[in-house]
TrEMBL record:
UniProt entry tagged with the keyword GTP-binding: yes
Gene3D superfamilies recorded: 3.30.70.240, Elongation factor 4, C-terminal domain, Elongation Factor G (Translational Gtpase), domain 3, P-loop containing nucleotide triphosphate hydrolases, Translation factors
Domain Tr-type G: 42-223
Primary location recorded for the protein, binned into one broad class: mitochondrion
Provenance organism: Galleria mellonella
Membrane topology: Peripheral membrane protein
Protein name: Translation factor GUF1 homolog, mitochondrial
Cited function: Promotes mitochondrial protein synthesis. May act as a fidelity factor of the translation reaction, by catalyzing a one-codon backward translocation of tRNAs on improperly translocated ribosomes. Binds to mitochondrial ribosomes in a GTP-dependent manner.
Length: 640
């Protein structure tokens, strides 16, 4: 097998001109020799590890891989399932990764499909898609930190999906660990019986074997029909250089094998299954797979699907019972532009391929007079935006420029005066430039979120002041224990996505945790603020702000522009304007030549004459001059 894999790599490198066809031919031959049998459904367990950030999900996954023999103990690289460079650099999980593990319990062989999920709220979409293929979850809680905000969110998600929850305390080996206290928190917040809570140390391996046995005994096998028509739904997709789009699929019914003809629910075109594999987490090619399994499937370069779509056998009737996938609600939008327009094609290809692997982003074409042709991209948060940009650079060598992030708003357009490009009464605005004249808008709507904050009691005053300052509305609070309190506030999304989390960590010395969920659009007094340079509108710098924040934002933006815009030959007036009224102004002084430097003594009238001529020249220049802002300055301003 090893020799055959080496031969494949040699063929790919040597025959690059026709590597796709050669690789497919050898790969199909290799898979056909596999004797992997379809496991008994009763001995399949599909489960995820869910937890707050840094509670030990990836470390636990490493121990599970060691116990099941996938990797050797003491592997050089920790966090084996964190395969992306950005994950290793930042120490966070960005992508949910699947590993199919073989484990023997009571002399019976079990197939355990483990899905390691991210913990940060910006990647919650990965968790939502992962649990759709699971029957249970391991809810990991740090025995030092206790219940955190994201713990509340993942518990709620598991309950909504009717999943069995195995509550597990991690890091019990640390001196500060207090398992009894954390168990009481779980009882108070989630009504979990302390007797059902397991205690482990993922780092040292304590209790992990017992956890694996609990997965088998507590989590039920998948409820599927092996004798029915083949039907699977897509959890994830990614792009392979030689094989095209590959999909991670959970099989609901029936069987699939290499060479079988299938179709996508979203289209009538038929495709042939060319690649099947279990992820362990490296690919292990198989010849066929059955209901209840989580597998990788590929239908060739032109047979790719999308996340949430269904793969069906050609004789499977469209019964209308599609797997419902909740639509992604994008929290932040930003403009993405190439550093140079000559790199537009390269960046376009990179964004399309990365969007396959990150289905939570939305991409629409956009343009800017200052930055050229680009895209308006929707993200789930600022960290998601940052990671997306970093992956573009690291994985595809594509350098991108990002404009200042903004949140989506909704407007209600007045009666018959609907602007032509808007169809319907309510319109989602993702770019301030799309906002029509205020006379045509009946009402503005702002996106709100319900923020959950778990903080020590001594910081309640500081946290409350922060939330009220960010226009928050309090909801009933609950005590987690005698030291920790759970606060909930309805907050505007625009006040949360930028620096709320950093400020919260700062005022609570890092002890508070924060998570939020969508609360929909609600009426709000919003207004569009424009920036004028010597009376000329600069469209790229327009923003949508709340009326109560208008003067503060106006002063802050004009002061920032004064620092960043280079001096010109003429004086430049920077004005923040709303409806013709100036709310803030800064002046950038012009370059000035000392025309009187050559005078030594003499009559003062000569000096006045030269200064008068200079003033008249400046006035004439100002009347005809265009204020030109260098592209790099525009980039700096927009990125801020």
């Amino acid at each position: 097998m090893v020799t055959l894999i080496s031969s494949i790599n040699g063929i790919k490198n040597y025959c690059s001109f026709n590597s796709t066809k050669l690789y497919q031919r050898v790969f199909i031959k290799r898979t056909s020799s596999s004797n992997t049998k379809i496991p008994d459904v009763k001995r399949i367990r599909n489960f995820s590890i869910v937890a707050h950030v840094d509670h030990g999900k990836s470390t636990l996954a490493d121990r599970l891989l060691e116990i099941t023999g996938v990797i050797k103990p003491g592997t050089e690289h920790a966090q084996v399932l964190d395969q992306l460079q950005v994950e290793r650099e930042r120490g966070i999980t960005v992508k949910a990764v699947t590993a199919s593990l073989n484990y023997t319990h009571n002399n019976e062989q079990y197939l355990l499909n483990l899905i390691d999920t991210p913990g940060h709220v910006d990647f919650a979409n990965e968790v939502v898609r992962s649990v759709s293929a699971c029957q249970g979850v391991i809810m990991l809680v740090d025995a030092n930190e206790g219940v955190q905000a994201q713990t509340v969110a993942v518990h709620s998600l598991a309950k909504r999906n009717n999943l069995l929850i195995i509550p597990t305390l991690n890091k019990v080996d640390l001196p500060r660990a207090n398992p009894d206290k954390v168990k009481s928190q779980l009882k108070t917040v989630f009504d979990i019986d302390p007797a059902t809570v397991l205690s482990i140390s993922a780092k040292k391996g304590w209790g992990v074997e017992e956890l694996l046995q609990a997965v088998i005994t507590r989590i039920p096998p998948p409820i599927v029909k092996l004798d029915d028509h083949f039907k699977a739904h897509i959890i994830d997709t990614w792009h392979d250089k030689y094989r095209g789009v590959l999909c991670l699929a959970y099989i609901h019914s029936g069987k699939v094998r290499i060479g079988q003809t299938v179709k996508w629910r979203s289209g009538s075109k038929q495709h042939t299954v060319k690649f099947l594999a279990l992820l362990r987490p490296q690919e292990e090619p198989i010849e066929e797979a059955g209901a209840g399994q989580v597998i990788m499937v590929g239908c060739g370069p032109k047979g790719g699907g999308s996340v949430g779509d269904q793969l069906l056998s050609i004789d499977c009737a469209d019964t209308g019972d599609a797997i419902t996938v909740a639509p992604v609600r994008h929290m932040v939008y930003a403009g993405v532009f190439p550093a140079d327009q000559s790199q537009h094609t390269q960046l376009s290809d990179a964004i399309k391929k990365l969007a396959l692997n990150d289905s939570a982003v939305s991409v629409t074409p956009d343009s800017s007079p200052a930055l050229g042709q680009g895209w308006r991209v929707g993200f789930l948060g600022l960290l998601h935006l940052d990671v997306f940009t970093q992956r573009l650079l690291q994985e595809y060598k594509a350098e991108a420029i990002l404009t200042a992030p903004s949140v989506p708003y909704k407007i209600k357009v007045k009666g018959s005066k609907i602007i032509k490009q808007y169809k319907g009464e309510e319109v989602i605005i993702t770019n301030p430039l799309q906002l029509p004249d205020a006379n045509n808008i009946a009402e503005y709507y702002e996106p709100l979120v319900i923020g959950t904050i778990i903080t020590p009691v001594e910081y309640i005053g500081a946290v409350t002041s922060l939330c009220i300052d960010r226009r928050g509305t309090p909801l009933p609070s609950n005590a987690v224990d005698d030291r920790m309190t759970m606060l909930q506030y309805i907050l505007p999304l625009s006040e949360v996505v930028v620096d709320f989390h950093d400020t919260l960590k700062s005022i609570t010395s890092g002890f508070a945790s924060f998570d939020y969920q969508d609360y929909g659009f609600h009426p709000s007094p919003l207004i569009r603020m424009d920036i004028l340079l010597n009376g000329v509108l600069v469209e790229e710098l327009s923003t949508i702000v709340h009326v109560s924040r208008l003067e503060y934002n106006a002063r802050r933006l004009t002061e920032k522009l004064k620092e960043m815009i280079p001096r010109q030959m003429v004086q430049v007036a920077v004005q923040a304007v709303v409806g013709g009224k100036v709310y803030a102004r800064e002046t950038i002084k012009a370059y000035r030549k000392d025309v009187t430097a050559k005078l030594y003594g003499g009559d003062v009238t000569r000096r006045k004459k030269l200064l008068k001529q200079q003033a008249e020249g400046k006035k004439k220049m100002r009347s005809v001059a265009n204020i030109k802002i260098p592209r790099n300055t525009f980039i700096d301003v927009l990125k801020k």
